[in-house]
Specification:
Length: 149
């Protein structure tokens, strides 16, 4: 194996480690959010992203990026959340093709109820992950990230 091959393997191992940590966190969050709040991780992510807009809304494309979903998956998810009255769509006045999404009061209440569960489970899952030698450096790196302003 040459130097270039070694570099590829290091990156591949890093990706596998990141995927393992993500899977561990997502599984724990999915289980608890679904059972306690009837909310999936991606639904929580969308509500959380909308809540951080300070009374504003997001274009569907921005929401897709925030939730790491395709456009079609985002549309289906928004439809489900809209049917549950957790968010609403708003047509852009300047561009009739533009569609925004906005959190409803019911969505805000559900998010407020789910946030402590999310935060508790995330912390517990990270505490569990740091016990795994392969995951510990990545968990440590996450803890060193600067807090949002």
């Amino acid at each position: 194996m040459g130097i270039a091959d070694d570099a590829v393997e290091v990156r591949a191992q890093g990706w596998r480690t990141l995927a393992a940590l993500h899977g561990l966190l997502e599984t724990a969050l999915e289980r608890e959010l679904t059972s306690a709040h009837d909310l999936s991780v991606v639904e929580y992510t969308v509500l959380d992203a909308l809540s951080r807009q300070d009374g504003w809304h997001l274009r569907m494309s921005q929401l897709a990026r925030a939730a790491a979903l395709s456009s079609s998956a985002t549309t289906r998810l928004v439809t489900r959340l809209e049917d549950r009255k957790l968010l609403k769509r708003i047509l852009c006045e300047d561009d009739r093709r533009g569609i925004y999404t906005e959190l409803t009061p019911a969505g805000s209440r559900l998010l407020a109820a789910a946030r402590p569960t999310h935060d508790r489970v995330l912390e517990q899952a990270l505490e569990q992950a740091v016990q795994t030698p392969e995951l510990a450096p990545l968990v440590d790196a996450l803890h060193r990230l600067p807090a949002p302003a």
